[in-house]
Amino acid sequence: MRLNVAGLAFLVVAMAAAVAAALIGLRVPQAHRVLLDLPPAGPDAMAGVALATAGAAVLTRHARHPLGRLMAVFGAWWAVDDAAASWLAYATLHHPALPGGSAAFFVYQRLGAGLLLLLPLVLLLYPDGKMPTGWWRGVTLVSLALTSLLPLALVAVPSAIAQATSDSRPIPAPLTALDLDPLYVPLPDAVWSGVLLVAQLCIPLSLLAPFVVVVRRYRRSAGVGRARMRWLLWAAVADLLVMLTIRLLPNDFGTAGLDIALVLTAGSVAVGIVRPDLVDIDRLLGGTVVYGALLALTLLLDLLVLGGAGRLLGPRLNEGERLVIAVFAVAILYAQLRHRLWRLVRRWVVGERDDPYRVMSGLAERLERADDSGTQLLTLARTVARAFRSPYVGVEITQFSGERLLVEDGERPAGTRALPITYRGEEIGRLLLPRQAPSRTRLSSNDERLLADLIRQAAAAARAVRLAEELQGGRERLVAAVEDERRRLRRELHDGLGPALAAVASRVDTARITARRSPEEADRILGLARQELTGMLTEVRRLVHGLRPPALDDVGLVGAIRQQAERLRAPGLAVRVEEYGDLSDLPAAVEVAAYRIASEALTNVVRHARAGECVITLTRDGEAGCLDVVTTDDGVGLGDGVVSGVGLVSLRERAAELGGSCSVTSAGSGGTRVWARLPIGPPATRREAVTRAATTEEVGI
């Protein structure tokens, strides 16, 4: 980062003028300055140095920023103005006055009025250095013209008229020897008096348009722009508190209050442009409002106690005793009100995130009352929105079927950022927030920890509801599957095997009757019965195969899958089945599920993948207590926007029935990868393992 030459030059001028003002001021008695109605030497010049420093800082980051140039120029001007006042006081100490006294008077008393333009220009150009557009530009130009009316009038007005208009006292005697009117314009005194009166009335009116422009920009700002505008708002609040405090002090501190306000405003403007995220502006603004209100409350209470004590006790209490009573009363109320007032202001400024326990307990209470996942997700969204004052919060959860359930609070902006919602390492959803967040929603480190806790709490709740819904859905599917299977078996037995057995029984009876008179006919009838029995045996095998593939018992899981691969293999497709680990003692349900999943995945490869090779891998993981069934092909892969069909959904359902999982993703080679993980440990063992894991996590926390 390089220093800006122009900003550095004006800063050097301001510092030189400040040094000159201080050195010259040391030679002038304060009584002489009071006689000339001049402020103390030094504070104004130092304020000018601060203003020039702020301008140089802005120009260092943004070399052509109009506000940086403006503050640098006005800072140097402010310091030079104070140096001129010091020289005016020093020159008029001598008789005759030293050279340059008249020029110093003109610079300080006449040109110094041009410093009034600083405030409206800052308001109109902050924060991007651009004037308003449209018809507002004309309004602001008129406003600046009204502000310029007084500085222009003071350049040409006679000193006697200017002194009479601003102060009833005559011109101080040391100044009468100077040439006070080098640019005097001869007009009637009444005309000049009217011009000065109108110019002074235009000053407050001319600030109306800049303030309206600031309010419009603040309301339309967002993100970093809103943070910058809040820096200007903080400067306004701080300046107001400074000026109110100065009003309670002796008149000698009036100029100091203006200088302090100038320094605060310059620093705030510079920080707002260069580093708006330097500190938490919301916390700073809230704290300023709180302590300002407490200061006002303290002073008011002090006055009430002192006045009441004086009225009730009269001469029995002196000023010291009254002050002690006031201090005790203020301390008692301060201790009671400070914390509550702080919480109220912080909640108004940044929401409820300043009280994490309140946010977490409120979320837990509301989640307990929620009956379904949609209500719980909406509860989470509203809690985050309320806690962080966010205009939009969305919660998206991946359901068991693979579809996404999205619940939103507020109007969705054009851009959003997603924070993952994970549970035990598995991403189950996302939390959506505005990409360009308002400054009040920008998160500090504490806020990020609170948001992480909220997401963790909601993840557990959403996972529990999701599992409950999956369990209920699994129960319903299980009952439906059992009933469907019973209905199918009943239909097959009643409509198929039942009539066939009745027909065989009838043929046997016919053969018995026919055997005495025609053994040949009886033998023919028995042959027909034998054929019908053979058909019934085939049907029974078909029914048994539907319940459990016989190949699993004949050749094992791997052999059954290889047989299925031989039956389904298409021309040009090579299928390879690999096994790792001992697969001989798998539970029956796991064998059937693995066989069905591999068969369905292979069927999809044959029908849709247009692959040249398919690899089915069966891996038993003894430590994890599960069987991994992975089917990988080198086909066309998954297209964009592919919706899960019945086959893919059935893969997930078969795995979920055993407490496992199944995912369908794109393979690294461009094909498709189906990965199913099936638990093979006894249910009791799995429950004990889960319980031990949960206990370990709780102890670790």
UniProtKB/TrEMBL annotation:
GO terms for molecular function: phosphorelay sensor kinase activity; protein dimerization activity. Keywords: Kinase, Membrane, Transferase, Transmembrane, Transmembrane helix, Two-component regulatory system. SMART domains: HATPase_c. The chain crosses the membrane at residues 45-63, 70-93, 105-126, 138-161, 190-215, 231-250, 256-274, 286-308. Residues 589-682 form the Histidine kinase/HSP90-like ATPase domain. Gene3D superfamilies: 1.20.5.1930, Histidine kinase-like ATPase, C-terminal domain (3.30.565.10). It comes from the Bacteria. GO terms for cellular component: membrane. Pfam families: HATPase_c, HisKA_3. It comes from Microbispora triticiradicis. This is Sensor histidine kinase. InterPro entries: HATPase_C_sf (IPR036890), HATPase_dom (IPR003594), Sensor_HK_TwoCompSys (IPR050482), Sig_transdc_His_kin_sub3_dim/P (IPR011712).
